[in-house]
Amino acid sequence: LNGTLIADSMKEVHCMARHILRSQQYDREALTRLFKKTGEIAARFARPEERRALRQLLDGRLLFNIFYEPSTRTRMSFGAAARNLGMRVETTESAGHFSSAIKGETVEDTMHVLCAYGPDAIVLRHNEAGAAARAAAVCEVHDVPIINAGDGTGQHPTQALLDLFTIYQHHGAIDDKTIVLGGDLAHGRTARSLVYLLSKYPRVRLIFVAPVGLKMRGDILDHLREHEIAFREETQLEAAFPDADVVYWTRVQKERLPDPSIYPEVANVYTIGVPEMGLMRDNAILMHPLPRVNEIKPEVDSDPRAVYFSHQVRNGMLIRMALLLDVSGVAW
Ligand code: NCD
Fold first, then answer.
1. For residue 80, which phi and psi values (nearest 5 degrees)?
2. Atom 11 (ligand 1): residue with closest C-alpha?
3. Residue 192: is it exposed, middle or buried by C-beta count within 10 angstroms (0-12/13-18/19+)?
4. Which of 86, 90, 140, 188 could form an SS bridge with 59, CB 3.0 to 4.6 Å?
């Protein structure tokens, strides 16, 4: 079975055990609630005596972080988020190389075993689209929620949620905003997941900028047409940046290119430096899920509109605190 089929057949499952599998599962009401909760967590986390109280909320519960693909931010921010709520955290890095997967164990079997150790939630990053939904089908039986931390070229819903929250926090709204998404839109799961969330806001306008061969895939474009979201594709930064409230840039996913030999060529099509920032409005923001390779020059980092090392990463930890509370069913 391929990942998409499995993901589709799993549509109902996430409603039952509070899994977080893909960004479409959130409706606007749920997003508004999540943002309010994240704002409250941020305010409490800023005060030392409140930090102690936050650590009581999931005191003694157990989180498993299982990563089959490389990760720094997602893994560490989930770890930090969990500990800030008092959870204990067990982590495997490079599970694809050092775990029993190398011996041929399926993700389903691994989940059966992990669930037997009694975790309160499992954060899973995997290299195959649909893996999180497959894991959820197993963990459902054990009543353990799965949080998809990126499944191949599929989805990365918690990243999309923190990205949407960052836009909301800066602009005070999502509706009416023009968002430029650029870089490797064909393989980047963060951009794909974010578009699904943005399409919940009927008046947003999207502009896609990607090298030939890395353009946003047809499934997403069909989704936008179906939901009557205005979008256009541009090839020049000059035609996109001046209209943007948000520029969301991504790296070329070298490891996912069907032909890796094209990397040097496609990776150098767009580079954002000080002159390109000059095309952007004063109140626009530049976002990036990170890791940044060379698509944004370090000279841009000190521009106050560049939020990838500041609000965006910080929001990752805060929103993951809110999400861990959600999947644990702890009332706020
Ligand atoms: C992204 C991912 O893993 O999809 N990183 C992240 O989680 N912030 C982006 C990437 O790898 O390019």
1. -65, -45
2. 291
3. buried
4. 86
Lowest-confidence pick of 205-209, 233-237, 254-258:
254-258
What is the number of the ligand 1 atom nearest to the C-alpha of 190?
4
> In angstroms, rounded to a whole number, what is the distance separating the alpha carbons of residues 225 and 228?
5
pLDDT digits (tens, 9 = 90+) for 135-149: 999 999 999 999 999
User: Which amino acid would we find at residue 238?
Assistant: E
pTM of the full predicted structure? 0.93
Rounded to a whole number, what is the distance in angstroms from the first to the last CA of the chain? Answer: 39
Which residues surround ligand 1 with Cβ inside 6 Å?
73-74, 150, 156, 159, 189-190, 250-251, 253, 289-290
Kindly provide the b/e burial profile for residues 242-271, where b requires at least 16 CB atoms within 10 angstroms of the residue's own CB. ebbbbbbbbbbbeebbeeeebeeebbebbe
Query: Which residues neighbour 25 within 8 Å (Cβ) at sequence distance 6 or greater?
Result: 14, 15, 157
Helix (H/G/I), strand (E/B), else coil: 22: coil
Distance between CA 95 and CA 271 in Å, rounded? 33
